[in-house]
């Protein structure tokens, strides 16, 4: 049974999903897919403003799709598809351009951040800004409005874009009468920032990530590279300041977490041993999904089949919404 509400989100194919992405965003989507009718698309058109290498976008698209499937996305309730496969998206974007004030785009955080960076470095304010970046929130509004979405789970950084989608829906409804539902952004429960290998926030931009479903030996190598302080094995250690412990508790159950906490505090455990415990925990939790993931990545035709089925389901809703909009705007 699914709830009536429609959940929608897009994931930009700009890198291999890491543990931070999974625990901070993807996991809660997979949980929601058990309960709600869900549209999840790989936002390949949104990646275009920064990645101009088709192979890279295609590869990351497969990685994200395979990871979501392998981690248990409920495909009965979910249409999983490529953003670019739905022709209506290009059309709705064009229609929405004409009710969106330019000033709204000037206020977008991502655009403003680029302008500020350019101003600080004394170059032309529009340097490195293409129209894909400038009009990004309109494409995103089209994504959201095309599928009658009610709930849009996003990270904090994307909240403003979802609010813009509401604004744009409002401008349209004011001119042409009630047409679009107003979507709600839902900012995932803050699981705290997952630390990376060097203790800073795990992020592609810091090159300190642990990919979620990498091969076993790569996982081990990464974990062994976690930076620690120089406490000797016999010394007591503060678990809450240790990246090893902070990541461990996200994969372990309450009893296991309490046991490791005690070993940190008691002393007598070196960081090498703590890393091995962490590795074994993650490895045991992820070994089955990793097998499914590796199978899918080796047979991309299976991923294509799922993405194509998703696109067909998405297209049914999209075509209805688009024809309503077209009729209202052009008669
Ligand atoms: P990155 O910093 O690696 O470029 P993104 O900015 O693409 O990651 O993040 C995509 C999603 O994953 C966002 O919703 C973000 O909140 C979540 N996320 C990324 N890194 C972390 C982290 N270290 N801890 C918690 N959530 C994270
Ligand atoms: N802009 C989002 C990001 O950078 C991805 C995205 C594209 C999206 N379209 C969307 C998210 C629609 C939610 C709804 O992460």
What would you note in describing this structure?
This protein is mainly α and 331 residues long. The protein contains 14 helices and five strands. The strands form two sheets. A three-stranded parallel sheet has the order 1-2-3. The two termini are 38 Å apart. The model has no long low-confidence stretch (mean pLDDT 95). It binds adenosine-5'-diphosphate (ADP) and tryptophan.
Brief description of this entry?
With 331 residues, this protein is mainly alpha-helical. Helices cover 56% and strands 9% of the residues.
Low-pLDDT windows of residues: none
Structural class category = mainly alpha
CA(first)-CA(last) distance? 38 Å
Number of strands: 5
Helix and strand arrangement:
Elements: E1 3-11, H1 19-32, E2 36-42, H2 44-47, H3 54-70, E3 78-82, H4 88-97, H5 102-106, H6 109-120, H7 131-134, H8 136-145, E4 151-154, H9 159-176, E5 184-187, H10 216-224, H11 243-251, H12 254-266, H13 271-298, H14 300-330
Helix pairs in contact: 3-13, 4-8, 4-14, 8-9, 10-13, 11-13
Residues 8-10, 12, 43, 46, 140, 143-144, 152, 154, 158, 161 line the site of tryptophan (TRP).
